[in-house]
Amino acid sequence: MELHNFDAIVIGAGMAGATAAAHLAPTRRVALLEAEETAGYHTTGRSAAIWILNYGPPDVRALSGASRSFFETPPDGFPPLAHRRAVVTLAPPSQAAHLASMIAEGAGIEPFPLAEIAVQVPVLRPGYAAAAAIERDAFDIDVAALHQGFLRTVQRNGVLALRHRASLIRRTDGLWHAETSGGASFAAPILVNAAGAWGDEVARIAEIPTIGLQPKRRTALIVDPGAHDCSAWPLVGDCDHTWYVRPEARRKLMVSPADETDSDPCDAQPEEIDIAIAIDRMQQALDIPVTRVEHAWAGLRTFTPDRSLAIGAGSAPGFFWMCGQGGYGIQTAPAAGALLACLIDGRDPGPLAAIIPAVDPRRLERTT
Ligand SMILES: Cc1cc2nc3c(=O)[nH]c(=O)nc-3n(C[C@H](O)[C@H](O)[C@H](O)COP(=O)(O)OP(=O)(O)OC[C@H]3O[C@@H](n4cnc5c(N)ncnc54)[C@H](O)[C@@H]3O)c2cc1C
C-alpha cells in the first residue's frame, strides 16, 4: 500500500472539511479525504444557502457574525458570495407571543406591517398571519462558489483525494494513519474529523470516544409559483419554523416543511409524506397552486446533543473535531474554519475565544 506523508489529514470534503483544510493550508500540507466521487455530494450540496444572523444557539450566532465580512468582501480567489435577501417571519394567532419574544431578543428584527408583505409577496393569504417581522440583514450564499474556493485553496498546497473513504484509522509513533478505500495510506501528526453525519463513525474507527451526533433529515422541493416572478421575494416562513419558502429563480420557489427526522448516516432521500406536508403548510399561508413538483431532495443536518458545534481537540493527541454543523454549516463556515486552525496552532482566535467552551468537543465525549 502506498504511504503518503502530510502535515494534516482532514476526513470529509463537505463544507466543514473544505474550510478546515483551507485554513490549515497556508502553513501545512493537507490531505483532504472524501469518500464520494464529488466533494459536497452529501449535505453541503443540499442546503437552502441562506445566512441569517438570528438563527441557532449563541455560539452559532457568534460564528455567523464573524463570517459575515468573508461573505460580503470575499478574499482573493473567491467570486462574490452574498446576494441580499430579507427574511420575513409570519405569526398565525397561536404564534404571536413567540414572534414578540423573537423581536425582543433578536438583533435587527423589526415588526413588519402585513399590508407591506402583501405588496412584496402578493400570494399571501389574508387572515393567515396575525403579525409579522422582518430581518433585512440576511443574504443568499453562493454555496458552490464558497466550497470550490476553499477546495482550490487546499489544492495549492495539498491534495483533495476523492473516492478515498477512510476505513482504518490508527495512531502509531506520534502519527495518525488513515487507510482508504482508494488503496492508499495517509500519515500525519494531525487528523481532523469533518465527516458530517459520519462523524461518530469516524471516531469509532479511530477508537476514540464518540460525541452523540444525531443526523436529522430535512426535505426540500422546487415548485413553480405560477404567474408570479418570485425572484425578489424575501424568504418567508412561520415563527415556529414548521415551513419556509425561498426563491431560487424567477419561476422557482424552494419549499421545506422544516422537518427534523432522526436518521442513520446515509444518502438521504425525500419521503412523499414530507413533500405533501411541505405543500400543505405552504398553501395554508400562500395562494400557490402546485400542479407539479419539479424536483425534491433531502439532506442530513447533523446535531450534537446540545445543538452547539463541536470544534476543537478530542481526547486523543492530534485528533480534532469539526462536526455538528446542524442547519448552519454554510453560514458559519469561514469563521469555523478559522477558529479550528487557531485551536490547532495554539493561536488566539480573538473575540471567538468566548465561545471555545461552548464548542469544545470534550464536553460531549462518551465512551459508547
Ligand atoms: C435542506 C437543508 C437546508 C439547509 N440550509 C442551510 C442554510 O440555509 N444555511 C446553512 O448555513 N446551512 C444550511 N444547511 C446545513 C448545511 O448544509 C450543513 O450544516 C453543512 O453542509 C454540513 O457540512 P459538512 O461538511 O459537515 O457535511 P457534509 O457536506 O455531509 O460532508 C461530510 C462529508 O464527509 C464524507 N465522509 C464521511 N465519512 C467519510 C470517511 N470515512 N472518509 C472520507 N470521507 C467521509 C462524506 O462523504 C461527506 O461528503 C441546510 C441543510 C439542509 C439539508
UniProtKB/TrEMBL annotation:
Keyword Nucleus: no
Name of the protein described by the UniProt record: FAD-binding oxidoreductase
UniProt keyword terms in alphabetical order: Oxidoreductase
Domain FAD dependent oxidoreductase, chain residue ranges per copy: 7-342
Superkingdom of source: Bacteria
InterPro entries named in the record: FAD-dep_OxRdtase, FAD/NAD-bd_sf
